[in-house]
Amino acid sequence: MVAESFVIRNGTIADGIKDTPFVADVLVEDGCITKVGPNIRSNAKPIDAEGLLVTPGWIDIHTHYDGQLTWDPFLRPSCWHGVTTAITGNCGVGFAPVRPDGQKLLVEMMESTEDIPAKCLEEAIAWDWESFPEYMSSISEGNYAMDIGVQVPHAALRFYVMGERGARNEPARPEESAEMARLVAEGIRNGALGFSFSRTKAHTYLDGWQPGTLSGIEELKPIATAIAQEGGAPIMFSPRGVTGLYPEERDEEVRLAAELSRISHGPVMMCLIQHSHEPDEWKKILNEFEAASSTGAEVYAQVTGRSIVTLGGFSTKFNPFMHGKDWPSLAALPNKEIAQKVSSDKDLRNRLIRDAESTRHIWQSRKFFEEKTYPLIPLGETSPQYEPSESVAAIAERTRKAPIEIMLEVLCSHNGSGLLNYPHYNYADRNLNAVFEMLQHPNSRLGLSDAGAHLETLADASLFTFMMTHWSRDRENGIPLSSVVKMMTSEPAEIFGLNDRGRIAPGYRADINVIDYSNLEVGIPWLEHDVPGGGSRLLQKPEGYIHTFVSGVETFSEGKATGDLPGRLIRRESNL
Question: Coil, strand or helix: which one is 288?
């Protein structure tokens, strides 16, 4: 696979640096951008971009493609949404280091924490590694539709060093903390991009919490010191209280982030979302981050650009009708056929509604009966709405129907592909105003797409397209296009020390999107039955990406794969 020379002509460039887009040409040679400017003289292959937007490729810093990269080299759906670099190993979970007798635990932990089926992982992963450097070597042998970066995950590390004691969250002995620090340093030295851990009690494992949940500064300080000795690298973690649970434990998390930053001499990112228990708490945390930054700590809230939801439909993991007596006979049918049966059989429809009402207390479906459930695609419309104004309850009141009737209408819409949208987080005020402020705070960085995780309940890998359509184009009180592009390119590149990408400028890698910005659409999620072990996943394909290049090689043209897979494992370069 050879990167051709080409020149993108007359595109409107949002380069990841400047505050205002500008019209220019972009010359690409040997996989790198060599010239940006008007009327570039070149005999290279021309690509007409007049009326189109030219941006750097998106960098997704929070994915869980650790398992998927072993069986899906395209890393769908991220590849469709303009992502050219994906970083795995988040939230402290991953698959190395590992001893042979620990593989099952890591699989179970990934299933429990990130909702990736164990059968899929057991069938797909070759386990041809033990150490983290060996894991990286295994990944480096693959070809992908985008570049892959990895972080050393604390939970796997803890089990590797401490065995069952680590899995049970017992305190690490000094020699165990020292050994974990040595292994993190080894990973960073071999090119790992960073280190991640989790302290949120929302991350569970079997009958307890994820390994590392109870780990404090005594265990983490040696690791941060080792990172500093290797020249520094980012640390990412999910904090206590992030979901609103255990509020009494939240205050120490900002102090922990600041202390780890000072020790490691690098950035520390802590996940931040708005929750309904205390809807304005995020403001306090960002203020504390700002104060910590003024004293020399480099701390950021890792935030997302929309609400964090559960999607419910006829073929997803959860829906309001799943516990009814008729559901088992319907569940095996295609969505379109379910919708036809429900629409044509009044008795069936009534039974589904009656059974749903009588089983509404069961936890898998009870969330949909709350007042803040919305149609993902409003009835009568054709595009998903991630900042909806009319809930199922409001529609029911307006139409004088029962909410459960509206839910069934929603699921039957679009030939049975309609979806219910239950926003758990970032929608306490029934709008995205809090997200608007979080995104633009100087101490925040865009992440939390969770691409590759929660396969049958959400489809947030489309976050990057949504940022372009919703925040920079469609929302009345939006965010300037250039600012949105920076959030997805130069800012994540800078925090991870990826100094060769994230900008349209001479000397940078030719990771480039050419986008029909005016007609860009995020697409409608659907369930695809293509996961190893017989599983399924929600996919979402946008419209409007005309060309996507990775290192100057076109991976997608008009939304279709070219077949070329130029993506590789990327390794962090030492700052020593």
Answer: helix
* pLDDT surpassing 80 at residue 250: no
Contact 88, 94 (CB under 8 A): yes
Poorest-confidence range of 29-43, 209-223, 463-477? 209-223
pTM: 0.97
* Residues 303/236, Cβ–Cβ less than 8 Å: no
Mean pLDDT of 150-158: 97
Contact 435, 274 (CB under 8 A): yes
Fold of 1-57+456-561: Urease, subunit C; domain 1 (2.30.40)
* Kind plus residue range of the DSSP H or E element containing 35: strand 32-37
Task: Give rounded-to-5 percent helix, strand, coil for the chain.
Answer: 35, 20, 45
CA-CA distance, 238 to 62, in Å (whole number)? Answer: 11
Token code pair at residue 213: 């949940």
Q: Give residue 530's identity as a one-letter amino acid code.
A: D
Query: Of 556, 354, 538, nearest to 461 (Cα)?
Result: 538
Helix, strand, or coil (residue 158): helix
- Taking CA atoms, 181 is separated from 188, 191, 503, 528, in Å, by 11, 16, 34, 41
In the numeric block, the tokens 């898998």 are attached to 364
For residue 241, name the pLDDT band (cuts at 50, 70, 90).
confident
Beta carbons of 201 and 246 less than 8 angstroms apart: yes
Q: Distance between CA atoms of 556 and 317, rounded to whole angstroms?
A: 30
Length of the chain: 576
Higher per-residue pLDDT: 249 or 381: 381
3-class DSSP string for 508-566: CECCEEEECHHHCECCCCEEEEEECCCEEEEECCCECEEEEEECCEEEEECCEECCCCC
Q: How far apart are CA 425 and CA 409, in angstroms?
A: 25
* pLDDT in the model for residue 365: 84
Buried b (16+ CB within 10 A) or exposed e, 133-153: bebbebbeeeebbbbbbbbbb
| Tally of CA atoms within 13 A in the half-sphere of 239 that contains its CB | 28
- The pLDDT, as a whole number, for residue 383 is 87
Residues 191-223: pLDDT tens digits? 999 999 999 887 777 667 888 888 999 999 999
**Residue spans per domain, the chain:** 1-57+456-561, 310-425
